[in-house]
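Sanity check

After download, print the first record. It should look like this:
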Amino acid sequence: MSEVGTAATAINEHFAATQPGLFARRVEEFAPDEVVSILQGLPDKVLIEVWERLSPNVAREILPHLPKPITNTLLNQLTPTALVNLLSDMDEEDKTPYLEQVSAGVRREIDAVLVYPEDSAGRKMDSRILAMRATDLVGDALVRLRQHKNTRVIYTIDDDMHLLGRVSLEAVALSGSETALEALAVPAEVVVNAVDPLEEVVTLFETLNIEDLPVIDVGGRLVGHFEQRKMAAVIKSDSTSDLQAMVGVSRDERALSSPLFAVRKRMGWLQINLLTAFLAAAVVGLFEGTIAKYTALAVLLPVVAGQSGNAGAQALAVTMRGLALREITLRHWWRVTSKEARVGLLNGLGIATTCGIGVFIWSGSLGLVLVITTSMVLAMISAGLAGALVPIVLTRLGQDPATASSIILTTVTDIAGFFSFLGIATLLSSLL
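Expected structure tokens:
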């Protein structure tokens, strides 16, 4: 290799080792077949650091192009959670060859993670933990720590793997080699069950000053943990994926995803949205005669629908945030909906007053003012109720409230706005 090539390889390796996240973003800009030469020269540890920071769909596109030695390194050194994320969306026939390359121990770890529900703590936890008997000595712990270079805590357990406590690396470093770990352990005051929602883990890290969070199964046995240093990416991914899910975009899609991948993930929701648009159009069609007779109604129709849509989106955002941060639970549904109904009433009165003045200046018709002010208040109340109820009902049904809340809310507010405006116009047609 030439001196220039050697220097370029060294610079590449240094960049990847010191800035693995930024290096991964640069890798994603290349075609999958071009990435191979970039990754081949990286040491195994650096390769793992970079790979774990790649977008899942990009990693899946690159994987088939990698030579077998690199693939084997990835499959046997990635954490089980990272492997599950990498392989979970593959077809069974595509997944099988990769699973055959992993060792029996890694396969057992993968299977252990896969038994937990989607978006549960068990699916995202790191199962590669350092757990030792409470009676083990510090000297033994130091030997084990050299084999677990990435861990920052030792968990103490009994003979049945039940969690007893945790020991910090600082306590180990400052103690004699003959000291028992039970003398250094402190209780693990905060734990999470493997089947608990991932949102609960995020909330605990956001609200409590904790460095790690052990995960136990239903029998109280230690099965994994979360570390604060690795939770920032999970929190960021969780919050940004909700933004995508609310408008019918897959959580897996990234800005650099292929067009076909994006189309496949978006098309279903767009078709559903088209159906809901036809439902709203059908409501307008019921009052076709009224609109034909009073053309001013067609001009004002989007005003009512637009205001109710905005009001519903505000109520939805507040309710979604409350559910995500555990500020409210399902038992608070009446307080939330009644509050949003009152907000809708007061906002509706304020907006209706302003709107009524504008419509009177424009049309000079008191009848038209009465129609739009009355319908505006009703539409705003309906929008507030819908914005609060949609995520609560979805949660009650066991669904992710972010998945389709926006599409459902738009349908409800459009139908409520159109029906209230055109229905009142029909009833008060003699005043128009």
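If your output differs, re-run the checksum step. Summary of this record's structure: The longest strand covers residues 163-168.
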